[in-house]
Amino acid sequence: MGNFIGTFNFIELCLKYKVNNFIFSSSCTVYGNRDDSPKEDDKMLFPINPYGRSKLFIEHMLKDTATANKDFKIALLRYCNPVAAHPSGKIGEDPFLKPTNLFPIIQNLVRGTLKEMKIFGKDYPTKDGTCIRDYIHVTDIAQGHIIVLNAFEKENEKLFNGNTVIYNMGTNKGFSVKEVIEMYEKANGIKLNYTYGERRNGDATIPIILLKCILMDYIMNKLLIKIISFVNEIFNHL
Fold this sequence. Notes:
Blueprint: H1 2-16, E1 21-27, H2 50-68, E2 73-79, E3 81-83, H3 102-111, E4 117-120, E5 132-133, E6 135-137, H4 138-154, E7 164-169, E8 175-176, H5 177-188, E9 194-197, H6 214-219, H7 227-237
């Protein structure tokens, strides 16, 4: 609710001061738990948790604003799972609260602030029974934002068709929880302590990793960084 109200207030300020280019950090969680790939990004949206629903509510609010204000342009960037750190190791994720995402949990395990991590579910219909996620590097997300900002300024018709555009930011390749753990262990020569627990409510099995990530295709193939580099950079950040 806080995000929704905050965005509403922010949109009002944008309209008041004629800030007409708006990039919204949305999420692929708006697609929910589906095993097919919709041909249109604004069709068949079924978020299965409060986070995904909140993102979808804000998307609708922004679309309505753009419909009512012809000069107001929005780019909805639906992220997959942002991970890793800057290659220098100087900038990375360090959550203040208890993390619920896989990579910061692994960080805490390596730091020693967490004694054991739990994998939620081992009976999903995947090759090793654990959930699959499409992970995107944080620097790729930053590069994607720069491209969209430049498109706003240049009114790039290749990226913009009308005043509302939607792009998925991901690599189109997924990795299971167990695969990520094993890669981390192999890349850094350590053993992670983990156990299995029950499935967690709101977790999708394979959240639309096959959905075409248009923005990533447009940027260039070099952004499809291998997952192995993610775990090395996170380790360097610790």
